[in-house]
Amino acid sequence: MKLLKSLATIPFALFGLATNAQNFTQKPNVIIILTDDQGYGDIASHGHPHVITPNMDRLRDISVRLENFHVDPTCAPTRASLMTGRYSARVGVWHTIIGRNLLREDETTLAEVFREAGYRTGIFGKWHLGDSYPYAARFRGFDEAIVHGAGGVGQTPDYWGNDYFEDHYNDNGVWRPYQGYCTDVWFNEALRFIRESKEQPFFLYLPVNAAHQTRPHVPERYKDLYKDIDVNDRLKIFWGMITNIDDNLGVMMDRLEHWGLLDNTILIFMGDNGTCMGPNFWPENEKADWSEHYNSGMQGAKASHYDGGHRVFGYVYYPPAGIKGGREIDRITAHIDLMPTLMELCNIPKPAHVEFDGTSLVPLLTGTYKDWPERTLFVHNQRVLDPIKWKQTSVMTDRWRLVDNTQLFDIKQDPGQNNNIIKYHPEVADKLRTEYDLWWDDIRQRFHETTPLYIGAEQQNPVQLNAHDWMITDLPPWNQPHIVERPKSNGPWSVRVTYTGRYAFILRERPEVAGFPLSATSARLYIEDIIDETKPVVQGATAVRFEVELEAGDMEVKTWLIEKDGTSRGAYFVDVYRLSNE
Length: 582
Hints:
Layout lengths: L28 E7 L18 H9 L1 E3 L2 E2 L4 H10 L25 H7 L3 E6 L18 E4 L20 E4 L2 E4 L4 H15 L5 E6 L12 H4 L9 H26 L6 E7 L35 H4 E2 L1 E4 L10 E2 L3 E2 L3 H8 L16 H5 L10 E4 L12 E4 L3 E4 L3 E4 L15 H18 L9 E3 L7 E4 L13 H6 L7 E5 L3 E8 L13 E6 L3 E6 L7 E7 L2 E10 L5 E2 L3 E9 L1
Parallel strand pairs: 1-8, 1-9, 2-12, 3-13, 4-5, 4-8, 18-20
Antiparallel strand pairs: 2-11, 3-10, 5-6, 6-7, 9-11, 14-15, 15-16, 16-17, 19-27, 20-25, 21-24, 21-27, 22-23, 22-25, 25-26
């Protein structure tokens, strides 16, 4: 297959060696490209034996590379930290489902800061920090927001039937159809946004959903690139998804050069967590030769608290500020550093009410620092309803990793984290434990708070509640294939009633567009001490409607769809309308 365009073929003017149309005295544009589940090792120039990434390789060569760059082990927490410059658990996001992926309303986002500074802001792809008011991207500082639902195409809150091709995406609050493959759509919409941003600088956030494996699909021509390699189809599709991203990256770089924008654009290219194709990540699903699953010698993959789960690639390109390519930075850095870094590069003052956990990396990126301080950073994987101290935790410095309070690794000597040397360095472990205790006590101040789903707000009425956000300790039906299996599970939603008035709750097993008939013979709605009502289901009906008077405030909502034999499941989808005010 012929690649759309390799960076190796683009004129050197692209790389800052010639002056383009914009003047460097203007505010720089900002582009953040965030890939999904593509690990550090899933790039050819990082040693991968098979994956084809000429454009990523060339961008790596011309960028400053953050070689000790860390994010959270899973996607929503990484996005929360990237958007706020603060630890994800501090801002209420420590899971990808069960209502723990909602970015608290009182947090300030990168998009809000840049829009306030006069930038045109846009997001295209995966937000994963809430799908309704006040959490959805269109309410968090983005002038344009074209996204899929939740954490992946085909997850429960996404448009029913989306499968990566010819899908419906949410365009600033309205679901509408798009032609083509998902990654192509995100890049095409991003290019349109850039082309239309002529009168003001732009902030573009491009978090593609590939190569996420909720529904692994890619155009056949990309899978066929790997047809002669003796590995399972899941790997071929995964690599094909990455090569498709690579082609789109090449086109974007070409367009930026053609429009005279690249010399005044800060470009960041990064991953959101470790690879989802690391050793033993899918062993229960596939019988495969796991030696083919390359991870640059690191232990762990996505969701792991070892380096393979959270050390990712981070390329920064912006020569006008002295961020010149070909350099590597081996000091420890993290996603929490990017917001203060971008604000300094763009000369945007920090809002008085914002306190960052990260620090500006400008001195490192430009090579102007004299004494860069030692830092201790923290990573944990809290895929639970309420955080647990020391759960899957890594306390990190430039040299050390204290893992789970029981293992100590010298990462300089042992990058694969194979040799636990805690008994030889008890003083190091004690120091890192003390730092962790202080950090934990600091970030845990709001762990008790629930981030409620709003109903009845002027900004969005009606609102859909769905099983993805049930607040339960077990796994809810978080994607559409789960819904099709009709699990007998249930859970409550935490909601905030914004206005006292009359509300309608319409219970369904699948969303309205699916037209799916209920097999239940009765339905039940329970809202704390306000209502506990059961009513019959009309044969062939696709929904059951309840109406109730509610006072403004926070409460829990739970539903049941009950079969003739008495078995039941929660209504996976509930549309809530505010009918009238008091």
